Amino acid sequence: LFAEFEYNTDLFRKETIERLHSHFQKLLEAILQMPHQPVSRLPLITDEEVQLFTHEWNQIPSEPPLNICIQTLFEQRVTRHPDKIVLVFKDEQFSFARLNAQANRLAHFLRQNGVGPEKIVAISLERSPQMIISLLAVLKAGGAYLPVDPEYPQERIDYMLTDSQAQWLITSKHLKEKFEHFTGTIIALETIEDQLTQFSEQNPQLVNTPQNLAYIIYTSGSTGRPKGTMLQHQGVINLVYSLGAFYGIKQNSGVLQFASFSFDASVDEIFDTLLNGATLYLIDRDTLLSGTGLVNALKTYKITNVTLPPSVLAVLNPDEFPDLKNITSAGEACTPEIANKWSKGRHFVNGYGPTENTVAATVHLVDKPIEGATVPIGHPIHNVHVYVLNQSMVHQPIGVPGELYIGGVGLARGYLNRPDLTAERFVPNPFAQNPGQRLYRTGDLVRYLPDGNLEFLGRIDKQVKIRGFRVELGEIEAVLQKHPGVKNAAVNAVKTADNEVRLVAYILPENQQTFDLDELKEKVKSMLPDYMVPAAFVTLSEFPLTPNGKINYRALPLPQFDVSGEIKEKIKPRNTLETRLLDIWKEVLGSSNIGVTDSFFDLGGHSLLAMKLLTAVEQQLGKDVNLVN
């Protein structure tokens, strides 16, 4: 047989066609050897490529000391640098010794009250040193911490506390009313201050191992129930040793703690800083969300290292921050424009990783201008293995999309109280030399580039990233469908002109005449975190359907993100100031149909867009305002 490949050299490189030729030949050989196998199970890639995928591109340059717990590594830092400032909050500074002493007192108290290995302690505190002290204390006591954002809707807070079976809850006295349904022990820190002085400042005896639980993070669930992901000490230690140096975190580094405590990016920010001997700067929530608060914090504290979502980086000016040398973009897909803007003269990293793999799985250092349409998500970090596979778990060739599977020491133990979902998402590793190793099915569509970098292409399922948070659209649909006035509901994620991802809810009411959309919105806000509340609600008389009778999501109408369910007269600006403000709103929200009395948040606005809005107001009008105003 003779085969000849003819191709357009303007579209294809010679190396690409040579790979295609070898894959075609390999497929023909496999058909002859295994004529009864399904095509999806036939190998395409050569033995050399198998070696490349399973070993060279998953190579582990150095083995970090994994046999250690988080608190032990922190205590080693305390011994080496007792007087170094490790934590700053407003005008308050904590040395390693002071932070350790306060955490030790609380840890001894917790252990006396029964906290130990595999015991879950919920923490619900506002941004403060007490938040850091509490999580260190839980780990020192041997337990695992569960972050509960006090800003979450009451129903979600109650569900997390009940589902996790947490026996203790550390909080503040003024937040106690949020936990009236909690059946465990509530520890309001202000009420035990005198008691804590009676406990030792010495390090508690180590009672846990690197394989014990360190923390639990709840993420969105497709069934309408959030799922608790269980992470172990060894994953955090691997993260710190892998990325501390790569992120440029040194003893003289100043790191901003930006992410919500309930979002796993905070794990990286906190422990990469504390365990590498740097200084962590905490900023209260109101300051972070004000128009100039983030800008002022970066300048005032001379922050050198920060991890921010691309949507925040997009509204900041790199020239304003000469001290900011190390930037990590994470939580959302980074655009080439943002990467090129921030990588000039700086150490800019595009990071990727699901909660199920201890924050990070792959990283890419942008050390030259990005000319393509996407920014690669890079190579795996130490002790992490990645594979691009088809539905039959067969390797996909370079350039061919497949699902990303992740293995290694950073993998979560699984989902709390969800053995069915754990078995579905964490599967045996067919490429492992040792039995018992697993892979996590990410649901992310990626492909290998010729240089070994991974390119992120999107999701396979109905999961999206909103402001850095992973959201299951099915969970929002389930909440909408529980409402008695809703016959059916669908939720789509759509991109605006400025690359902003927003959620749109499509409602099929039981009765068009009596349906109260405003009441539904309020109900949704009471049940879901703000990042999961749709930016727009559209009522329909019927859903477009596919030939097999399912909702045709692609045929759902696109709103202008100002759909409120009823037609209201738009109030025009009455003076020059209102005209200028309205122009800023239109630019930020990406909509022209806005009146001066409209609600920013009803039009699809959220906290990150509010930061963009307030920054624009200051730049264009010279007025420093915040969200309270």
UniProtKB/TrEMBL annotation:
Its cofactor is pantetheine 4'-phosphate. One of its GO terms (biological process) is secondary metabolite biosynthetic process. Keywords: Phosphopantetheine, Phosphoprotein. Signal peptide: none annotated. PROSITE patterns: AMP_BINDING, CARRIER, PHOSPHOPANTETHEINE. InterPro entries: AA_adenyl_dom, AB_hydrolase_fold, ACP-like_sf, AMP-bd_C, AMP-bd_C_sf, AMP-binding_CS, AMP-dep_synth/lig_dom, Condensation_dom. Gene3D superfamilies: 3.30.300.30, 3.40.50.980, alpha/beta hydrolase (3.40.50.1820), Luciferase, Domain 3 (2.30.38.10), Nonribosomal peptide synthetase, condensation domain (3.30.559.30). This is Amino acid adenylation domain-containing protein.
